[in-house]
Amino acid sequence: MDIKKITDGLSVSPQIALDDIAAIKAAGFRAIICNRPDAEAPDQPGQEEVEAAAQAAGLEFRFLPVTPGIVTDETASAFGTALTELPGPVLAYCRTGTRSATLWSLSQAPTRPLPEILAATKAAGYDMNGVARRIANGGKTPTDTGDAKFDVVIVGAGAGGIAVAASLKARKPGLDIALIDPADIHYYQPGWTMVGGGIFTPDQTAKTMGSLIPKGVHWIKSAVAAFEPADNAVVLDGCRVVKYDRLIVCPGLKLDWDRVEGLKETLGRNGVTSNYRYDLAPYTWELVQGLSRGRAIFSQPPMPIKCAGAPQKAMYLSGDAWLRRGVIKDIDIQFNNAGGVLFGVKDYVPALEKYVEKYGVNLNFFHNLIAVDGPAKKATFAVQKPDAEPTTVVTDFDMLHVVPPQCAPDFIRVSPLADAAGWVDVDQATLRHKSYDNIWSLGDVMNAPNAKTAAAARIQAPVVAENVAADIDGRSPVAQYDGYGSCPLTVERGKIVLAEFGYGGALKPSFPKWLVDGTKPTRAAWLLKEKMLPPIYWKGMLRGKEWMAKPEKITVSGG
After folding, report:
1. What pLDDT is stored for residue 450 in this prediction?
2. Average pLDDT for residues 134-150, to the nearest whole number?
3. Which residue numbers delimit the FAD/NAD(P)-binding domain (predicted)?
4. How wide is the angle at C-alpha 62 spanned by C-alphas 57 and 66, nearest 5°?
5. Is 118 within 8 Å of 107 (Cβ atoms)?
6. Most buried residue among 95, 195, 319, 536 by CB atoms closer than 10 A?
7. Which of 34, 239, 250, 487 is the catalytic position?
8. What is the CATH superfamily name and number for domain 150-253+408-553?
């Protein structure tokens, strides 16, 4: 038997034999559902035989046959009813288990989110993307045929989505483009570090989404439920379907707060904060101002995360504020990093280490935050050092700045677009999908090995726009992305180490060394971050003005 668990209450399997009944009983199952019609194959036992054997073993039995390829709404509903009526756990079977998994998926559609259903079946080895549209429609066969159709559909109206829409519209003004995003507000997330450091106010980092959608681009204010790349379709929540000639996927990533036990319940109080949320960044500054003695912990989860320097940016700005107030000698600053290095590009580490020493920071590598008890002010870390047994450490804190674990959004991870790790699978140079020629991706959601920063999206957007435009013209890709990312490390108020690098950690400075030496803290880099980058973002990048972001042409070496 090859039994695959879908939930605690249901497992599915291929055809069972009469000899398997005893083992099914021994495994703890209390009921069996047969979804295979009799006489599909000469060697299969009839449902009456299976029922008799099941009942003899003390198991309940139900027969809900499904003809291959014809899963009716009525049978799916009956399957859901059976799960509520039969004692669990239940084993359902057909020839391969696929029909049983499909029935479960459709029966759960009214009560479970589509990504949750797709994830559960995918983990069991069954791909339900073929019925995603029905699941999105509450488990019922859709009757809506009035699907919208666009030349280009862009999923996600964050930094990458709006920028690529504007860049594409500038190249091809006549294109019919749709942007899909349910959010009302667009955030300038790089500014949240500055909010947490008392430099920016929160309102400087937010604008209404409607004010930023490029002129002539349709805004579909909805969430995406699933992708049907074989049919050039995107399924929205509520089962509306949007068709496309070309698709650009850039919904960002998911902040997985739930992965740290007790964290969500205590965020924004008990001294627990995070600059990774708009509403919490002001609380960071409130805590920094209110702390005069005690322990402040700054955590960093395993990679990948958006802006890998942000965890320590918060730490440096806090340390600087405590130094200026003359209280830093009474504050124990701990940097607990799940990784094994201070920063992934070694050229910038010496400058950062000087600030670690200046603020008296204790570096704790291979420490991954797994639980927070806010009222007790205790944080639990899993410690996994190389060549050592794993342990856990519980640490008291007065202030805890948390960076949550991060992953691709649920609807991406369970889609046909994802690689094994759940990220959109692209060619790292052209940013075109490896399996679907009319799909591209940029920003935090795709799997190219670059830093996930807004600066990276600023360079990626023109590359994607250029290559989509070339594809429309019937040409091969013409632009390539070199992995550029930028991380302005705010080491003190008024100075920044401007880390700029590409694939493999190669340095990619934007300015001559006499103006900004990125490996050293400079006032010029601070002015860039504080005064220049916000208007470059709002008035340049999001409007398709590719300042300092001209796409690099693909070079073909001769032979």
Report:
1. 92
2. 75
3. 150-267
4. 135
5. no
6. 319
7. 487
8. FAD/NAD(P)-binding domain (3.50.50.60)
Rounded Cα gap, residues 334 and 356, in angstroms: 10
pLDDT reading at 383 higher than 60: yes
Question: Which of 154-158, 289-293, 384-388, 438-442 has the weakest average pLDDT?
Answer: 384-388
Residues 6 or more apart in contact with residue 69 via CB below 8 angstroms: none
Q: Residue written as tokens 């322990």?
A: 295
Give the span between the Cα atoms of 514 and 520, in whole angstroms.
11
Q: Would residue 250 show up in a list of annotated catalytic residues for this protein?
A: no
Q: Determine how β-strand 439-441 pairs with β-strand 241-249.
A: parallel
Those residues with Cβ within 8 angstroms of residue 527's Cβ, 6 or more apart along the chain or in another chain: none
Beta-carbon contacts of 135 under 8 Å, excluding residues fewer than 6 positions away, are 105, 106, 109, 114, 117, 118, 128, 225, 226
DSSP 8-state code for residue 347: G
Strand locations in 46-198 (E):
60-63, 90-93, 148-155, 177-180, 185-187
Q: Comparing 150-253+408-553 with 257-406, is the CATH topology the same?
A: yes
Amino acid 559: pLDDT:
36
Helix axes 310-325, 349-358, angle to 10 degrees: 40
Residue 34 among the catalytic residues: no
| Domain spans of the chain, in order of start | 4-136, 150-253+408-553, 257-406
Give the right CATH number for 257-406 from 2.60.40.3250, 3.40.440.10, 3.50.50.60, 2.60.120.340: 3.50.50.60
Q: What is the pLDDT of residues 41-50, one digit of tens each?
A: 778 888 899 9
3-state SS, residue 521:
coil
- Per-state percent for the chain, helix, strand, coil, to nearest 5: 35, 25, 40
Distance of alpha carbon 298 from alpha carbon 273, whole angstroms: 10
- Region of 40 (left: φ > 0; alpha: ψ -120 to 50; beta: rest) is alpha
Catalytic residue among 94, 239, 250, 307: 307
CB-based contacts of 24, cutoff 8 Å, min separation 6: 1, 16, 32, 57, 59, 91
State the average pLDDT over residues 532-548: 87
| 506 has a pLDDT exceeding 80 | yes
Q: Give the DSSP per-residue string, 366-390.
A: TEEEEEEETTTTEEEEEE--TTS--
pLDDT higher than threshold 80 for residue 68? no
DSSP line for 410-458: HHHHTSTTB-TTSSB-B-TTT-BBSS-TTEEE-GGGB-SSS-B-HHHHH
User: Residue 203 pLDDT more than 90?
Assistant: yes
Residue tagged 């019925």 (tokens): 131
The CA-to-CA distance between both ends of the chain, in Å, stands at 56
